[in-house]
Specification:
Radius of gyration: 21 Å
Number of strands: 0
Helix content: over 70%
Order of helices and strands: HHHHHHHH
Strand content: under 5%
Largest sheet: none
Shape: flat
Structural class: mainly alpha
Distance between the termini: 49 Å
Length: about 170
C-alpha cells in the first residue's frame, strides 16, 4: 500500500512539473531557434555559401527555407501558437542539419552516442521533438484557444430544455 501511495505522489509531482517544463523548453528553445533563423535570414549570402559548401541543392532556397523555419517556427514556439505544427519543420530542419553538417555525429549514433548528443543540432532537435510529442503545455496561446473554442462550443450547444431533439 505504501509503494502505491508513493508512486501516486511522485506521479502527481511529475504532473505539476509538466507545465513549467514545457513552458521553459518553449521559451528557451523558441528564442534560440528564432535568433538562429534570424541570423540565417539576415546573412543569407553567407548562409547560402555555407550550404553550398555542404553540397545542398539550391543553397539560397535551402538557406531561406531553413532560416524561415527556424525564425518563424521559433517565434511560434515562443508564444505557444500552432506549436506542434511549428515543431514539424524544425524537426525536419534539424534532421537535415545532422545529415549534412554533422554526418560523423549521425553515423556515430550507436557506436559513440556522446558524439551524437554533443553535436550542435541535438538539443534543438530534442526540444522540437518534445513539443511535437507533448504539445506546448498549459501556458500557451494554443491552450487558451482550445479552452476558448471548447467553451464556445458548449455555449452554442442546444440544451434538452430547448425542446430540440437530436437526430
Amino acid at each position: 500500500m505504501k509503494l502505491a501511495s508513493l508512486t501516486r505522489r511522485i506521479s502527481s509531482l511529475g504532473n505539476l512539473l509538466q507545465t513549467p517544463l514545457l513552458l521553459a523548453i518553449r521559451l528557451f528553445w523558441g528564442w534560440q531557434f528564432m535568433i538562429t533563423g534570424w541570423g540565417k535570414l539576415t546573412n543569407l549570402e553567407r548562409t547560402a555559401g555555407f550550404f553550398g559548401d555542404l553540397h545542398l541543392p539550391l543553397p539560397y532556397v535551402s538557406a531561406f527555407l531553413a532560416g524561415s523555419a527556424e525564425c518563424f517556427g521559433g517565434a511560434l514556439l515562443l508564444i505557444g501558437l500552432l506549436s506542434r505544427l511549428a515543431a514539424l519543420p524544425l524537426v525536419f530542419t534539424m534532421i537535415v542539419a545532422y545529415a549534412t553538417g554533422e554526418r560523423e555525429a549521425l553515423a556515430a549514433i550507436s557506436r559513440d552516442p556522446d558524439k551524437f548528443v554533443s553535436a550542435a543540432p541535438f538539443l534543438f532537435l530534442f526540444a522540437s521533438l518534445i513539443i511535437l510529442a507533448f504539445g506546448p503545455g498549459a501556458v500557451s496561446v494554443d491552450q487558451w484557444l482550445a479552452h476558448w473554442a471548447d467553451k464556445e462550443a458548449k455555449t452554442n450547444r442546444p440544451s434538452p430544455a430547448d425542446g430540440k431533439t437530436s437526430p
